[in-house]
TrEMBL record, chain A:
<keyword id="KW-0407">Ion channel</keyword>
<feature type="transmembrane region" description="Helical">
    <location>
        <begin position="184"/>
        <end position="203"/>
    </location>
</feature>
<keyword id="KW-0813">Transport</keyword>
<feature type="region of interest" description="Disordered">
    <location>
        <begin position="308"/>
        <end position="331"/>
    </location>
</feature>
<keyword id="KW-0406">Ion transport</keyword>
<keyword id="KW-0472">Membrane</keyword>
<comment type="similarity">
    <text>Belongs to the CALHM family.</text>
</comment>
<dbReference type="GO" id="GO:0005886">
    <property type="term" value="C:plasma membrane"/>
</dbReference>
<dbReference type="InterPro" id="IPR029569">
    <property type="entry name" value="CALHM"/>
</dbReference>
Automatic annotation (TrEMBL), chain B:
<dbReference type="InterPro" id="IPR029569">
    <property type="entry name" value="CALHM"/>
</dbReference>
<keyword id="KW-0813">Transport</keyword>
<dbReference type="GO" id="GO:1904669">
    <property type="term" value="P:ATP export"/>
</dbReference>
<dbReference type="GO" id="GO:0005886">
    <property type="term" value="C:plasma membrane"/>
</dbReference>
<keyword id="KW-0407">Ion channel</keyword>
<protein>
    <submittedName>
        <fullName>CAHM3 protein</fullName>
    </submittedName>
</protein>
<keyword id="KW-1133">Transmembrane helix</keyword>
<keyword id="KW-0406">Ion transport</keyword>
<dbReference type="GO" id="GO:0005261">
    <property type="term" value="F:monoatomic cation channel activity"/>
</dbReference>
Amino acid sequence: MDKFRMIFQFFQSNQESFMNGICGIMALASTQMYSAFDFNCPCLPLYNMAYGLGILLVPPFILFLLGFVLNNNISMLAEEWRRPQGQRGKDPAVLRYMFCSMAQRAMIAPAVWVSVTLLDGKCITCAFCTSVPVETLGNASHLLLSQGEIQRVLARIPCKEIYNGQELIANEVAVRYLRCISQALGWCFVLLMTTLAFLVRSLRPCFSQAAFLKSRYWSHYIDIERKLFDETCAEHAKSFAKVCIQQFFEGMSTDLVAARCHLPRKTSEDAGEASKKLLGITDQSTMNMALKSWHRCKPPLHLHPPALPSGNGWAGEGQPPLQPSTPRRETAAYYSLV
Amino acid sequence: MDRFRMIFQYFHSNSESVMNGICGLLALASVKMYTCFDFSCPCLPQYNMAYGLGIMFVPPVILFLCGLILNRQSLVMLDEWRRPQGHRKKDLAVIRYMCSSIVQRAMVAPVIWIIVALLDGKCLICAFSGSMDPEKFVGFANVTPVQVEQLLAKVPCKDDELMRNNTSRKAVSRYLRCWSQALGWSILLILIIAAFLARCLRPCFNQATLLQARHWSNYIDIEQKIFEETCCEHSRLFAHQCILHFFESMQQEIKLHNFNLPREGERDEGEEDLLRGITGQDQVNKLLKTWYYEKPPLDVSQATQR
């Protein structure tokens, strides 16, 4: 029981902190990805906007979905949503709570990417360089160029080495202007996100706090129950495998004794113990036969009743049968009060 | 039994996390390999495409195979697939589940290589610079076709004398890079959407069958590990018995040949027991020689019956 108490505490205390950790790592990864990514504005009129806005919006979407994919609770949520009702009612409030908590955590990395991108300025400079107000910042009437030519020249603003419109509008002026707007947008975005987070956290207790506590409890419960069920199945599989292999070796040694018609020798207690430890296999050919038999003819997934251990850990009395053909059925001895 | 229990706990708690850990390590190794690799485009018309696409696709195949090799479960799955039926029926759903989980984990590192290569852009610039339309770029418009081919092939090489300060080279390079990055992000987006949908929608289809398949695939893995552990333990005991038997038979042989007068009570009984009657240099030498030249048979049935 001690072992299970420790496990309960571990699951309870660490599930939230585990997800928070993943969230933090993804936020760091998003800044790292941005700095490692080599931003490369195409400097062509139609491509600039697509590229700039693409880099601003597509990676956050990817990070958002990644936040869901990495969260183990998503499959738990889907399972809980789709399961047949059975004998346990479904509570949509619990599902809503789970979804909201996952979505909130998944939003952090995209928000970090968008903030970093806006504060850096390269994306906005690339996307909106063709929309720079030439009349106010430069001299539009100086050169008589067609609209298309002007667009082509302006599109080269982010690429300093090929920029040839210095008379139209100075490169530094345009870049500074665009960067300023981009940083203003970036700070406004950060302010907005932080204000929203603050409001959500502080105003939530004002609305249906009791229902919120209930949903939170039952969503934790569903998570723990699922983990415990997996743990129990794994324990059962281990015990099952142990007994299966033991019975396999016993079966082999009984077969051998029957085949060789050994005259029963008088054995001392020590020899009996050694022989038992050796599982009745005491020479090379027997071992080879055992190994061959293990591959060619695996034992059935059906344990013989007399050999089952009486107290198998904590689940000896109530193991539900996993093979439908087991003749001896034992019913589970748990009574759920939920 | 305590030792077995500890080992069981280790095996269970760590088999999924070991596989995930290997998958993550391979992914990191693939990024590291790409950054360390010194990409060097040949800048020749026929070789560029082969080199560029080769670097893009051959290492992923290698990483995929490494992912399959390093995953212990692939051997377990193959064993389960190829074994004769015997007394135990085979369940195809279990084999399919194991196969899909192995392939999914093995695909992570190759996909990361391809995406990093596309986001970096060098591979695509090298492979497709020769296929660009020279009319679009000012510097290549008024040149003969043969020369244009040569020039375009040299675009990936920044340090070439012809290309060093050529603005058209930079334009071609930027254009191809932009497409390469767009392709990389699109592939990443599609994969993530597919992964998300797979995770969300899987419980809607055959969830009960999936739970069964997952349980039995885990069971097969544990059973194989326990069997190997049992065989190891058995071989240790077997070896112990075999060697004890060997020492006893040597001791008997020495007694027969040496006619040692038994000395009374001068030596400690415990020590004599440990020395097993081998108390002189030539006896030890004889024992070692016999161990090498005439290893005892693999049969301890008599030893255990004594």
